[in-house]
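can u do me a favor
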């Protein structure tokens, strides 16, 4: 069974907005005044960071992730493929944007065969991808660290091979 996933525009809309507003605000001083050289360099460097963020968001928007029984493929301009039996590291991390621990995102990291794939939870179907990957790599005997186990539970995926207490 093969499934294909991608990042929806709605999920990346905030990132597009932040990148474009940042670029606009960096360009504004050059339209109305001629900044001092040191200030101009700083503004250009900040603008370059917003441009890089815009390019990263655009690349993420174009990304397709294909999951099948043998592995996972990340397709952008080129294709990167990782076979399930080659996965040496599986981690699911949670990054919070608030001190209280709320309002954050998750990131799935798969590493093996000299390749690393990172997939963020803004992706439509993220929990299905995590579940498929967790089941596939657990069949290989790969153990999950405690943080990954907690994050799998929080995502509602559960840990493959773990039985509920009766």
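np, heres the sequence
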């Amino acid at each position: 069974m093969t499934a294909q996933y991608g990042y929806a525009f709605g999920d990346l809309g905030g990132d597009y907005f932040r990148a474009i507003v940042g670029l606009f605000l960096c360009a504004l001083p050059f339209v109305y005044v001629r900044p001092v050289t040191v200030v101009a360099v700083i503004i250009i460097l900040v603008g370059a960071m917003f441009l890089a963020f815009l390019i990263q968001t655009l690349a993420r928007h174009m990304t397709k992730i294909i999951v099948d029984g043998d592995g996972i493929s990340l397709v952008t301009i080129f294709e990167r493929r990782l076979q399930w039996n080659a996965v040496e590291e599986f981690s699911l991390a949670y990054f919070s944007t608030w001190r209280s621990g709320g309002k954050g995102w998750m990131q799935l990291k798969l590493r093996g065969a000299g390749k690393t794939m990172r997939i963020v939870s803004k992706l439509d179907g993220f929990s299905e991808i995590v579940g498929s990957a967790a089941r596939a790599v657990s069949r290989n005997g790969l153990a999950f660290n405690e943080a990954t186990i907690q994050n799998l539970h929080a995502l509602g995926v559960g840990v493959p091979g773990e039985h509920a207490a009766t």
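The CA atoms of residues 92 and 148 lie 5 Å apart. hope that helps!!
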